Amino acid sequence: MPDLTDVLEQVAAEAHPLAADDEVAQPGAGPERFALALCALDGTEHVAGDADVGFPVQSVVKVFTLTAALRLVGEDVFQRVGREPSGDPFDSLVQLEREHGVPRNPFINAGAVVVTDVLVEATGSPAAARAAVTDLLSDLVGERLEPDPEVVAEERAGAALNTAMGHLMRSFDNFTHPVDEVVDAYGQLCALTVTARQLARAARFLANDGVDPRTGDRVLDEPLARRVNAVMMTCGTYDAAGQFAYDVGFPCKSGVAGAVMGDVPNRFGVCAWSPPLDTAGNSRAGRVALHLLSERLGLSLL
Question: Which family does it belong to (predicted)?
Answer without folding.
Answer: Belongs to the glutaminase family.
